[in-house]
Amino acid sequence: MHAESDAFTARAGPAGRGASDSLIDGRSGLQSMTPRIAWIATPIVLALVLAGVAFLASNGGADPASVLRPDDAKLLMAGERIYIERCASCHGARLEGQPEWRTRGPDGLLPAPPHDASGHTWHHADDVLFRITKYGVAKAANLADYRSAMPGFEGVLSDEDILAVLSWIKSRWPASIRRQHDEINARQASQSAR
What we know:
Layout: H1 2-12, H2 29-57, H3 73-91, H4 126-135, H5 137-140, H6 159-171, H7 175-193
């Protein structure tokens, strides 16, 4: 029996501790556990950091001021008011746009497109829509010779006003179109993260 007890003590260390918890190397139990904690904590911390990066990239790397918020009731109230005042005269009271919006008029300009599900607004990521609204099509797309009837609203509307009107437009889309628009933003975010 004594031999079995000595074998257990040799294997488990004093007082039944495991060899790695023993005081033989002069470290306390906590100190000897530190490497194990690091092995467990490092992947957790790394996962949290990566999740944070993914979250920040989920808006396409866009300035947070340009990320649409179609579920923000206060913002949507302001957006509807601004749309009626600044956008409806061209894009329609019901977001329907102008007739023949895909065909250039006699002036060489395209009519205002619809912002409802029948148009192409939702085909563009949030930050693109924000830049087009703020700077106009030519400047946003860096097309020096492009003529457009769409004015830029820089200096006319604040960034928050632009965000409000675009968020209101998005809030009017059917759920399926909103999901597709969210996927466009996600794809842009993954491309920006590369």
